[in-house]
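## retry 2 of 3
previous attempt timed out at serialization; input unchanged, resubmitting
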Amino acid sequence: MRLLLNAGVYGHPEIIERRRTRLVNIFNTIGGFIIVLFGTINLIVGSYVHAISIFSGLALLTIPVYFLNGGKHNIIAKYYLVIANWTFANVIGYITIFNNQNRDNEFFFIGFSAIIVALFDGMAKRSLFFCAVLSALVMKYLRISQSHDGVLLSDHFLALTNLTVAFACVYLFTNVFKLDLQRSEQRIRMFSKKIEKQNSLVQFERDNLLYNKHLLRTTIDNLPIFIALVDKTGHYMIVNNRFQDVILKDVSTIEGKHYTEILGPEISKMATPLFNRCLEGYESIVDSPVTFMNGESIHAYGKYIPLKNQFGNVSRILTYVADISDVKETENQLMDANASKDKVLSILSHDLRSPLISLGGLLVYADDIEPKKFKELMGTVKQQVDSISFTLDNVLTWVKSQLGAFMANPQKVNLDKVAANVIKLYNESVKGKSIAVENDISKEIEVFIDPDHLAIVIRNLVSNAIKFTPVNGKIILKSTREYDNVSLSVIDTGIGMCQDTITSVLEGINKNKASTRLGTEGEKGTGLGLNFCLDILKLNSGTMEIKSIPEKGTDITISLPSA
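## retry succeeded, writing output
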C-alpha cells in the first residue's frame, strides 16, 4: 500500500508537486476502493451489467494512474485521473438515467470537484471544475425531467440551486483551505531556508573549527620539542607526537593518563616539584639531563607554565621541553677551545719565555765569561735549546690537531732508528741525572705509522720517563711482536702514577686543561704529554696501555700496526 501511495512522489524537486502526486495516488486508491465497493454492491443486488461496467472501470481508471506516476509522468497522471473518472462517472450516471434508475450519481461530482480544486491551479482548475458542475446539473436536470415528464416544479429549481450552491461551497472552502495550506507551506519553506542557512553557517564553523584543530594538531605534532597540556590533577589532556617517539605508546593512549604513569619514576621525581610549583601559580624551569624508557638520553630544557581561568585560579599547566643536547655539546666544545687557548698562551708565555730569557742573559754576558766556563755552560744552553725545540714541536703539532689540520701519512718506519735518534736528543738530560738508558728494541722491526708522529710519541714517553725518574734511575725501551702488531714499552724506575691519573689519561678526562707535575729535579713540561700521545696513536690505529706503581715506576706500552 505504501508503495502505491508513494509512486512517483519523489520524482519532483518541488514539495507542493510531490504532495499533489501523493494526493493523486491517495484519491486514485480511494476511488479504486469505491469502485470495488459499488461493484460488489451491484453484484449483491443482482445488477450484473453495472457490476461488470464498474469493475472494468477499475482497470481503466485506477491502474494506469499508478503506472504513469511510477514513470515520472505526474502531470499526465493527474489529468488522466480527473478526466477518466469524470468520463466514467458520466457514463455510469447516464446509464442509470436511461434505465430509469434513481441512483443520484450526480452527487459524486461534488466530491470529485474538491479533488479538482486540490490538484489544479488557474485555468485548468476552473475549466475542470466547471465541467464537473455542468455534468452534475445536466444529470440532475435529466433525472428530474424523466421522473416528472419534463415538468419542472419550484422544488426542482431549488434542488438545482442547492446543488449549485454545494459546488460553490466546495470550491470556496476547498480553495480557501488550499490557499491557507500554500501560505503555510511558503512560511515553512522560508523558515526551512533560514534553518538551512543557519545549519550551513554552523557546519561551516564546525568545519573551520575542525580544520583549525587539525592544523594546530599537525603543527604541534611536527615540532621537535615536547608539548603537553596537563590538568590540575596531573593527567595529560594533550600531548604531541614527540612523546610517542620516546614513551613508545600512541598519543591516544598517553592522553588521559597521569604523568607519573607515562614518565616513569626517575623523570616523575624530577617533574613533581615543578608541577607542584605551577599549581601555586609560579612558572618552573627544567634544565637537566634525562633518559627515557626507550633509552634515548637528552639534555632537557623547558618550562612548566600555569594557565589561569577568569577567576585567576590555575586550571591547566602547559609544559614544553626542548632537547638542547647539541647546544650543550657546542658549549662544551667552546669551553674546551677556550681551555686550549689558555693552555697555548700559558706554554708560550711561561714554558718557552723562561728558557729564552736565560739564554738571552747568557749571550749578553758571554764576553765576560771565561772560555772554560763558557764551554761548560754551552752544554746547558744546548739542553735548553733542545727543550725549546721539543716544546715547540709538541705545541705546534697539538695546535694543528685542535684545528682539524692534523693528518697522518703512515709508511714503513724502522722502530729502532727512531727510538735511537730520540735517545740521542736526551743525552745531556740523562747524564745530568745519571740515568741509565737501555735500548732493547729489535733492529729489524718495522711499523706502519707516520714517522713524525712516531718520533713525537717516543720523545714524549722518553721525556716523561726522564722527568719523573730520580737520580741514578733506569729507563728501558723494548719491543715485542704480536701477530699484526708491534708493542713498544718505555719502562722507568720513577715516582709512578696513581690509578686515578692513569684513568684520566686513558679516558681523555680534562685533556685540554693546562695541568702538569714537576719532575724529580723540578723539571717543567707543557702539560700535553700522554693525552696528546693518545690522540696521535688513535689517528695512526695505535693504542696505549699504562701500568704504574707509585714510588716504584711506570710501564707505558704502545701498540702499533706492523709493517
